[in-house]
Structure formats: structure tokens, C-alpha cells
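[SOLVED] Need 3D model of a two-part complex

Original post:
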Amino acid sequence: MPEENPIVAEQFEDAQQQAEAAHLGMWTFIATEILFFGGLFLAYTVYRHFYFDAFVAGSRHTDLFFGTLNSIILLTSSFTMALAVHAAKENRRRAIPFFLLLTIFFGFAFLVVKGFEYHKDIVDQLVPGAHFNPQLPPAAQIFFWLYWTMTGLHGLHICIGLGLLFVMWLRARRGQFSSTYHTPVELTGLYWHFVDIVWLFLYPLLYLVQRHA
Amino acid sequence: MNAPEPNYLNAGDTVKSWLLTTDHKRIGILYLLTILCFFLVAAVAAAMMRLELLTPQGDLVMSATYNKLFTMHGVLMVWFFLIPSIPSVLGNFIIPLMIGARDVAFPKLNLLSWYLFIIGGAFVMHAIIIGGVDTGWTFYTPYSTAYSNTHVIEMAGGIFIAGFGSILTGLNFIVTIQKMRAPGLTWFRMPIFLWSMFSTSIILVLATPVLAITLALMAVERIWGVGIFNPKLGGDPILFQHLFWFYSHPAVYIMILPGMGVVSELITCFSRKKIFGYHFVAFSSVAIAIVGFVVWGHHMFVSSQSIYAGIVFSFLSFLVAIPSAIKVFNWTATLYRGSISLEAPMLYALGFLGLFVVGGLTGLFLAALSVDVHVHGTYFVVAHFHYIMVGGMVTAFMGGLHYWWPKITGRMYPEKPAQLAAIILFIGFNLTFFPQFVLGYLGMPRRVHDYAPEFQIYNVLSTAGASILAIAYLLPVIYFVWSLFYGRKAGANPWRATGLEWTTASPPPEHNFAVTPIVTEDAYNYPPLNEVGEHENA
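Solution:
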């Protein structure tokens, strides 16, 4: 069975070197991603310091229900992702595509909920610009461009993650992964957990902090 | 006629075999050709600026055109020549050979880097052709977001795309150096070039994404008019400067650390000695990469940044001088009692030493708060960073290119014209940029196309120097091309240098090594001198 012996690319000596290189590559990529989001987190910190009252007012207008629901959905998806990787390690090869599909389902559910939330935000005039909600202080616009940019960029990462998961699901269905070879599933998992962790910072910053101040 | 040995150059001669190659050596060549094109365009912009500055009046170009010229010069030279110069050309070619690997860890990603680079470059070139950008390479807000009516978005977009190419190159090098070394090649047996490339890659991976998000936010503000950096809309322009320099100061080290690595190779080879204080030189690269992340505020001493932040940034900036000086002292100590020969690469290396010292020491002037207030925004700054970027990095790049040319092409370049070019470069460079220190100290501001008449003599000197410098750049183009056809066959190791890259054929075969080499000795293990000062087995 060809999938038992993973193809070792010509530049590598053996499968172990290949797997180690791939892991280090993904961790390095995640380091890049952290710094990419880092600029936004810095901007959030600076402007929250400048416009504290406006940020308090702004965060009261985010939708706590949708935000909390999405946090639960995303955490669950990380759990099913971990189960998929675990199944690969245990060589339970039918379970791999099942858990991947479940992860894809939760990922989509996140986007759907986010879509409803965005709709509500637009109706509530929370988009910065000429039609911004006049009841909010003008500086709340800064809170909301951060909200839109951060959640939007996070949503983009969810979409990329879903694309990766879909490819993994196709490959898993063909039985390409096993306890001896599952690096791609593991790396997709790392990426997915990273996207999840970003949300775990966005959720308190945008929805919870000083909500009741 | 014997058929030539199979090598990476004759492995395929179709356009497709080049454009879809995953061979790190061919990708290095692709980078070399593309960065030379960008260099040419940026050099023409520089030539026009120098011509304009020949006279105090604005008589060649208008101020608006001049603004576009220095923006184009800065953007192309920084992101499309200097940053990829040594890493993407020489690094790509040499790193896998130096560590005894068949390729980089992710060859397809390597090719993707090049495509991102040329797509980004195409955006920038298009922005230039349809009218250019007048913000300067720094894109300071709110000018770039609210007032400039030039093609800011497109140019920033090009830089954004090319940035991801840089990130992937850095990622590839980190993994390659960490995971692909030949058996026996421990960290402390690695040639110094690898240490400097590793440090550079760390900066590429950790700093470039911050530039990406900064340019993205700048574009968001410009397109939708939301208040991010524009104070009129509640934003903070200083935040833009912090974010920009958080990338762009470490980026300065992307533009010098690789040069330091190359020079370490050149000085050891042409004085036939082990590098003095290997561990110090190796760790000073890492130290520069780390400390480089916490000094960005020295670009903002007059920006209304708090004075206490200024003091801290000033002291932190002084710290960079320590690892830099360690390197210079160790290179000098390596030369001491070495068996020195002055081939062209060594001339470039020695030129680097002198020019880097001047550039580095004037950096200390600028890191000192009070002096900086006087010379901020003047030609003093321009002269300082050109001593590092051109005197340092470009000189090192030329030295490295000559040194590895026989490995890359299998042919020797002609020695005499090359030595001449190295000397002309040193003279032309100093004549171009030394007068600018004086100009800056006397108070001539940068980025203006006309100036007070008393500055003219220094500007004439500088322009004269620039034309000499141009000869130093054109000469190598001529004899390098000549050498491709008529150069002497190089053989595997024309310099009798140490290092795995010299153990394989020149040009190397497609997969570099027939058998994976095993390393049993330290780097630069040149035979010791005997009592009469000759090499044992020379």
C-alpha cells in the first residue's frame, strides 16, 4: 500500500527529517502570523488607552450572544480537530475524515453566525463612516474599524483553514493518512488551533472587557 | 570535444525549465537577473536626482517629479534590491551547498517566493509608469492616506505582496539551516555566513508581517477614510511611525547582516586563516538581530514621541554598536598575520570594512539624542545609511558575487578588471557620499530639489562621485558577461577555500552532491603557516 510509505521528497534524507522540517516550517509560519495580528492588537491597546469611554460604549454595542455562541462553536471545532489528529496517531483511519468533516461543519457554523452578526451590525449602523450610529461618540468609530478589521482578518483565516481542512478531508477519505504518516493533518490542526487562539483574544477584547463599566 | 559534465545549467534549456524550476540554484539566478533590473531602474532615478542637484536651482525636474524620483529610488532599492540581494541570490544559491544538502527544505515554496517577488515588483513598476508615488519610501501618514494624489495603494500593494515572498524565503532558510545540515555539521562548525543568514531569516519572519499589516491599515484608511492614523479623524500618526519602524529598523539589519556573513567568508579565505573568535562573530549576528528589534524609536526622536522613550531608545541603539564592533575587531584580528592575497573579492571585503566602520560610527552620532535633533532629516542621515547600505551591503554583495561567480557559472572572471572595479567603487562611493556628511552637518535638508548656493560645491563633488560609481557598477556587468563565454574554467575549488560548496563541481550538478558529505572539522580549517611563513601544503 503506497500510503504506508510516505513519499520522501528528494531533498530529504528520510521521512523523519521531512516531518521535522514541515513542523518547524509551520511553527515559523505561525510566528509570522502572530506578528501580523500583533500590529492590530497594538493599535487596539493604544486607542483603548486614548479613547477609553468610546471603547466602553462601543463594546456594549457588540453582540454578546453571537460572540459567545461563536466562541463555543470554535472551541468545539478545535476539539474535533484534535480528535482527528489523535485518530490519525492511533491509526483509526475511518475516524480521521469523520472528525475532519465535523471540524469543517463547525467552521462553517462559525462563519454563518458571524454573517448574522455582521448583518445586525450593519443594521445597527456600526460601520465607521458617514452613516455611523449618531448615538455613539465619534471615537467609537475607531473601536469599530478595529472590530471589523480584526474579525474580518480572522474570518479570512477561518476561510483559508476551511480550504485546508477540505483538502485534508479529501485525502483522508482516500486513506492517505495513518499512524506512520499524518504530518499534513497535524499541521492543519496547528493552523486551526492558532486561528482559534486568535479568537480567544478577540472575544474578550471586543465583547467582554469593560462591558459593564 | 568532450560533452560537458551534467550540471544545473545544462539540465534543461527551455524557458519552462527555468520558470518552473524548483532548483535553489536556478531560483538564485532568477533572483539575480530580476534584482539587477530593479537596480537599474532605481539607479537611473538616483542619477536623475544627482543631476538635478548639480545646481542650486530646480532646473532639471520640478519638485513634484523629484519627490517621485526619491520615492521610486527608495522603494526599489530597499525592497526590490537590497533585501533580496544577498539572501535571495547568494543565500539561495549557497546555503544548501554550504550545508551539504540537495536543496532547501521547501523548494516549491522557494519558487513561490520568487513569483510573489516579481508580482509585487510588477505592481510597483506599474505604479511608477502610470505616474509614480510622492510619499517617500516611508509612506508617512496622514500625507499618504489623505493628501497625496499619487498611486500610493498600488505601490504599497506591491510591497505587501513582495513582503510575503520575503517571509517565505526567511521561513525556508530557517528550516533549511536548522534541519538539513549534513552529518557532522554541528552549529559551531557552520561557516559564519550561515549564522548571519539564520539571523537575517529570523528578522524576515518576525518583522515583515508587521510591515504588511501597517501597509494594509494605511490602505484601509486611504480607501475608506476611517480614522486609523489621520489625527483629523481621531487616529494617531505616531502609531504609524512606530509600526513602520518596528519593521523598517530591523529591515536595516536584513540589509547588512548578510553582508557581514559574506565578508566573514571572504576575509578567512583570502587571509587563509580561521576566523578570530568564531563564537563571538557567530553570536554577534544573533545579538544584532535581537537588539535590532528594540531600537526603532531612534527614527522618531523629533516625532513628539515621549522624551523618556527617546532616552531609552537612544541607549538601546548604542547597544547595537557592541556586536557590530565585535565583528569589526574580529575581522581585523583575522587579518593579523594572515597570508593575505588581494584578489577582487578581498578588495571588496577590505572596502567593506572601511566603509562599514564610517557608517557604523556615524550611526552613533544619530543615536545620540542631541546630535540627532541637529542632523535629523538632513543629508547627514542620507550619507550615514548609504555608507551602510551601499558601502556595506552592496560592496559585500559584489565581493560575494565575485567570490562565488566561479561556483555559479563554472568560469573565472578576469582578475585585473575586477580589481580595478573594486577600487573604483571605493573611490566613487566615498566621493559621492562623504560630501553629504558635510552637507548634512551644515544643514542641507534631504528630499528637496533646490538648495542654498553655498552647498553647491559639495553637491558637485557628490554628483561627480556618482558618475565614477556608475563606472564601478557597469564594469562588472561587462566582464561578467564576457567571462561566461571566454572565462577560464574554474574547477571545483579555484580559491582553495574551505567549505562544502567548494567540494562539489563548478557549476554544481543538479542535486549538488553525488554523495551526502560528512563533516569532520571546524569551519575555515586552513593549513597553518610554517616557520618561514608559508603554508605547509601550499
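Edit: The two ends of chain A are 62 Å apart (CA to CA).
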